Protein backbone atom coordinates (compact mmCIF):
# COMPACT_ATOMS: atom_id res chain seq x y z
CA UNK A 1 0.00 0.00 0.00
CA UNK A 2 0.99 3.62 -0.19
CA UNK A 3 1.95 3.50 -3.84
CA UNK A 4 0.30 6.23 -5.83
CA UNK A 5 -1.00 5.59 -9.31
CA UNK A 6 0.08 7.75 -12.19
CA UNK A 7 -2.75 8.70 -14.56
CA UNK A 8 -3.56 6.34 -17.39
CA UNK A 9 -1.06 7.01 -20.21
CA UNK A 10 -3.73 6.37 -22.81
CA UNK A 11 -6.67 8.47 -21.66
CA UNK A 12 -5.19 10.56 -18.84
CA UNK A 13 -7.72 9.33 -16.28
CA UNK A 14 -6.69 8.74 -12.70
CA UNK A 15 -10.08 8.04 -11.13
CA UNK A 16 -10.89 4.84 -13.01
CA UNK A 17 -7.79 2.83 -12.17
CA UNK A 18 -8.39 -0.52 -10.52
CA UNK A 19 -6.36 -3.52 -9.43
CA UNK A 20 -6.96 -6.82 -11.20
CA UNK A 21 -5.90 -10.17 -9.75
CA UNK A 22 -5.54 -13.64 -11.14
CA UNK A 23 -5.62 -16.91 -9.26
CA UNK A 24 -3.11 -17.40 -6.49
CA UNK A 25 -0.35 -19.87 -7.07
CA UNK A 26 2.89 -20.60 -5.25
CA UNK A 27 4.51 -17.32 -6.22
CA UNK A 28 1.51 -15.19 -5.32
CA UNK A 29 -1.27 -13.80 -7.48
CA UNK A 30 -0.71 -12.26 -10.92
CA UNK A 31 -1.71 -8.65 -10.31
CA UNK A 32 -2.06 -5.72 -12.66
CA UNK A 33 -3.49 -2.22 -12.85
CA UNK A 34 -6.14 -1.50 -15.44
CA UNK A 35 -8.09 1.52 -16.56
CA UNK A 36 -11.88 1.29 -16.52
CA UNK A 37 -12.15 4.22 -18.95
CA UNK A 38 -10.17 2.92 -21.90
CA UNK A 39 -9.41 -0.70 -20.87
CA UNK A 40 -5.63 -0.17 -20.88
CA UNK A 41 -3.79 -2.78 -18.79
CA UNK A 42 -0.45 -2.46 -17.09
CA UNK A 43 1.98 -5.37 -17.13
CA UNK A 44 1.09 -8.10 -14.63
CA UNK A 45 3.48 -9.12 -11.88
CA UNK A 46 3.24 -11.57 -9.02
CA UNK A 47 2.16 -9.87 -5.82
CA UNK A 48 1.25 -11.13 -2.37
CA UNK A 49 -2.41 -10.92 -1.53
CA UNK A 50 -2.20 -7.79 0.59
CA UNK A 51 0.32 -5.81 -1.46
CA UNK A 52 -0.30 -4.64 -5.00
CA UNK A 53 2.75 -2.34 -4.86
CA UNK A 54 4.81 -4.15 -7.51
CA UNK A 55 1.90 -3.99 -9.97
CA UNK A 56 1.43 -0.28 -9.28
CA UNK A 57 5.14 0.36 -9.84
CA UNK A 58 4.98 -1.59 -13.09
CA UNK A 59 2.01 0.55 -14.16
CA UNK A 60 3.88 3.72 -13.22
CA UNK A 61 6.99 2.71 -15.15
CA UNK A 62 6.81 4.84 -18.26
CA UNK A 63 9.70 3.44 -20.27
CA UNK A 64 7.10 2.15 -22.67
CA UNK A 65 5.65 5.63 -22.95
CA UNK A 66 8.14 6.68 -25.61
CA UNK A 67 6.88 3.93 -27.86
CA UNK A 68 3.29 5.03 -27.34
CA UNK A 69 4.18 8.68 -27.98
CA UNK A 70 5.81 7.66 -31.25
CA UNK A 71 2.65 5.88 -32.29
CA UNK A 72 0.32 8.70 -31.25
CA UNK A 73 2.35 11.20 -33.25
CA UNK A 74 1.70 9.27 -36.45
CA UNK A 75 -2.05 9.88 -36.11
CA UNK A 76 -3.28 12.27 -38.76
CA UNK A 77 -5.98 14.71 -37.60
CA UNK A 78 -7.55 14.56 -41.05
CA UNK A 79 -8.05 10.80 -40.65
CA UNK A 80 -9.88 10.74 -37.32
CA UNK A 81 -12.77 12.46 -35.57
CA UNK A 82 -12.34 15.59 -33.50
CA UNK A 83 -13.06 13.57 -30.33
CA UNK A 84 -10.31 11.11 -31.14
CA UNK A 85 -7.90 13.89 -31.96
CA UNK A 86 -8.65 15.65 -28.67
CA UNK A 87 -8.15 12.38 -26.77
CA UNK A 88 -4.80 11.90 -28.52
CA UNK A 89 -3.70 15.40 -27.56
CA UNK A 90 -4.74 14.79 -23.94
CA UNK A 91 -2.81 11.51 -23.86
CA UNK A 92 0.31 13.18 -25.30
CA UNK A 93 0.10 15.88 -22.68
CA UNK A 94 0.10 13.25 -19.90
CA UNK A 95 2.82 11.13 -21.49
CA UNK A 96 5.21 13.98 -22.09
CA UNK A 97 5.11 15.29 -18.52
ZN1 LIG B 1 -7.27 4.87 -19.67
Give structural attributes.
single chain, 97 residues, alpha+beta, three-stranded antiparallel sheet, 3 helices, 3 strands, binds zinc ion
Question: What secondary-structure arrangement, pairings included, does this model have?
Answer:
Layout: E1 17-21, E2 29-35, E3 45-47, H1 53-60, H2 65-72, H3 82-95
Antiparallel strand pairs: 1-2, 2-3
The structure holds zinc ion.
For the sheet with most strands, the description reads: 3 strands, antiparallel
* Form type: elongated
Low-confidence stretches: none
How many β-strand stretches? 3
Mean pLDDT comes to: 86
Measured between the Cα atoms of the first and last residue, the distance is 25 Å
Structural class computed from helices and strand pairing: alpha+beta
The SSE string, one letter per element, is EEEHHH
Number of domains: 1
Q: In which order are the strands of the major sheet placed?
A: 1-2-3
- The whole-angstrom Rg is 15 Å
The total count of helices amounts to 3
Beta-strand content estimate: 15-25%
Helix content: 25-40%
* Ligand set: zinc ion
Protein described:
The chain is α+β, with helices and mostly antiparallel strands. 31% of the residues lie in helices and 15% in strands. It has one domain. It has a three-stranded antiparallel β-sheet with strand order 1-2-3, with helices on one face. Strand 1 and strand 2 form a beta hairpin. The structure holds zinc ion. The site of zinc ion has 8 residues, from loops.
Short recap of the structure:
By secondary structure, the protein is of the alpha+beta class. It contains 3 helices and 3 strands, in the order βββααα.
Amino acid sequence: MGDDFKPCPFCGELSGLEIGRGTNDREGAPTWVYCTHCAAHGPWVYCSEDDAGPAVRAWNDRDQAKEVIGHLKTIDPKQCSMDTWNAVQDALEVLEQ
